[in-house]
Write a structure and sequence with these properties.
This is Lipoprotein. This protein is of the alpha+beta class and 128 residues long. It has one domain (24-126): TATA-Binding Protein (2-Layer Sandwich), CATH 3.30.310. It is 41% helix and 34% strand. It has three helices and seven strands.
Length: 128
C-alpha cells in the first residue's frame, strides 16, 4: 500500500515539474552586447554566421549590419533580427511559430536558444 501511495505522489510531482518547466517567459532580447578586439565588421559577420551554424541556425545577411537568423526545431520556429557593428551586436525577436508568443511572453525554450546563440557568438568573436 505504501508503494502505491509513493508512486502516485511521484507521478504528481513529476507532472507538476514538467508543467512548470514548459511555461512562458518574457522574450529575451540582446541589446548592444559589447564587442572588443575585432578589427572589422566582416569579422563580426563571420563570427555570427559560424556561431549560428554550429547551433543549427540559418543566418542570412540582409545588408551591412543586419542579418536574419532562423532556427527550426521539430514544429517550432524562431526568427530573429541580428544587427551589428564592429563594436556591438543585438539579437531581437522577429517572429515565431508554435512558441506561444503573445506579444510579451514566449515559450521558455526560446530564451535558452537566444542565450546559447549569444554565448556562441561571443566564443567566435574571442577566437578572432
Amino acid at each position: 500500500m505504501e508503494f502505491n501511495l509513493f508512486g502516485k505522489i511521484s507521478i504528481v510531482m513529476v507532472s507538476l515539474a514538467l508543467l512548470v518547466g514548459c511555461g512562458s517567459k518574457p522574450v529575451k532580447n540582446i541589446d548592444n552586447s559589447t564587442i572588443s578586439g575585432v578589427s572589422s565588421i566582416s569579422s563580426v559577420e563571420n563570427a555570427i554566421i559560424r556561431a549560428g551554424a554550429g547551433l543549427g541556425w540559418i543566418i542570412k545577411k540582409k545588408n551591412s549590419g543586419h542579418m536574419v537568423g532562423k532556427l527550426a526545431l521539430r514544429k517550432h520556429v524562431a526568427i530573429v533580427d541580428i544587427t551589428y557593428t564592429k563594436n556591438s551586436y543585438s539579437i531581437k525577436y522577429k517572429d515565431s511559430t508554435n512558441l506561444n508568443y503573445d506579444g510579451t511572453n514566449i515559450h521558455s525554450n526560446y530564451n535558452g536558444w537566444i542565450q546559447n546563440l549569444q554565448n556562441a557568438i561571443n566564443v567566435q568573436l574571442n577566437l578572432q
